Automatic annotation (TrEMBL):
Protein name: Thiol:disulfide oxidoreductase
TM ranges: none
Residue span(s) of domain GST N-terminal: 1-89
Domain of life assignment: Bacteria
Gene3D superfamilies, per the entry: 1.20.1050.10, Glutaredoxin (3.40.30.10)
Length: 244
């Protein structure tokens, strides 16, 4: 059994999609991030960054030894789970394909994800009188990353080629919510097609619907939630947010 620490966000969906696609048994540990559950010592022993998603695998592969294995950061979780189930990644023997898989996982982790996350912040959560510059800045970066992905999909149905992999699972959630971010896929027809095909997968629908009633939907903003926003290093020590 895998303990899956989750909240219904694009980052949470990445791992939810993989768990649903793979059929691996998991126990959902739904987290109330606005109550600061991510700062508990028990959770930070699994995820030192005090961020979900994270997993604790009570039945790891033999090569990891017998003790439960904690894994944090979505890209590493996806790699770990693909190794565990033997699916959704090129074989380790195909070094060129594994190199490309790593490139696209790092691209999402270092470019698409952070730019989309900042765009979401300024679109949905920042103080109204401070949104304009940040929104324009990160909308431009979000679109630039859409261009990168559009080019990649110019001669292939999925990021890695003909096969649907963890690279698609990782990049899909932040493309899935383009419209709520204030962006458009009108100029990115290949992404729109890729997004539609992935969205239609039953496992993806189940993952996106997981704890759907707990989505933020604008209820928490910088102005009314000091746990999620304005965090500092003190947050990790005090079990909550501190003003920077």
């Amino acid at each position: 059994m895998i303990d899956f620490y989750y909240a219904p966000t694009p980052n949470g969906w990445k791992v939810a999609i993989m768990l649903e696609e793979s059929g691996l048994d998991y126990s959902l540990k739904l987290m109330d991030l606005h109550a600061g559950e991510q700062f508990s010592q028990d959770f930070m022993a699994i995820s030192p960054n005090a961020k979900m998603p994270a997993i604790l695998d009570h039945d790891p592969p033999e090569s990891y030894g017998g003790d439960p294995v904690p894994v944090f950061e979505s890209a590493e979780i996806l790699l770990y789970l693909s190794e565990k189930c033997g699916r959704f990644a090129p074989p380790a023997s195909d070094r060129r394909a594994r190199k490309e898989l790593g490139e696209w996982l790092f691209w999402q982790t270092g470019s698409q994800g952070p730019m989309a996350g900042q765009l979401s912040h300024f679109k949905n959560y920042a103080p109204a009188d401070k949104r304009d510059y940040g929104f324009e800045r990160y909308l431009g970066e979000y679109d630039r990353n859409l261009g990168v992905l559009e080019n990649r999909l110019s001669d292939r149905p999925f990021i890695m080629g003909t096969d649907y992999t963890i690279a698609d699972m990782q990049a899909f959630p932040w493309a899935f919510i383009a419209k709520p971010l204030g962006a458009s896929l009108d100029e990115f027809p290949r992404i729109a097609d890729w997004r539609g095909r992935i969205k239609a997968r039953p496992a993806v629908r189940r993952a996106i619907d997981l704890a759907k009633d707990r989505q933020n939907n604008g209820r928490h903003t910088v102005e009314n939630d000091t746990v999620m926003y304005n965090q500092s290093a003190k947050s990790l020590k005090s079990g909550g947010a501190g003003k920077a």
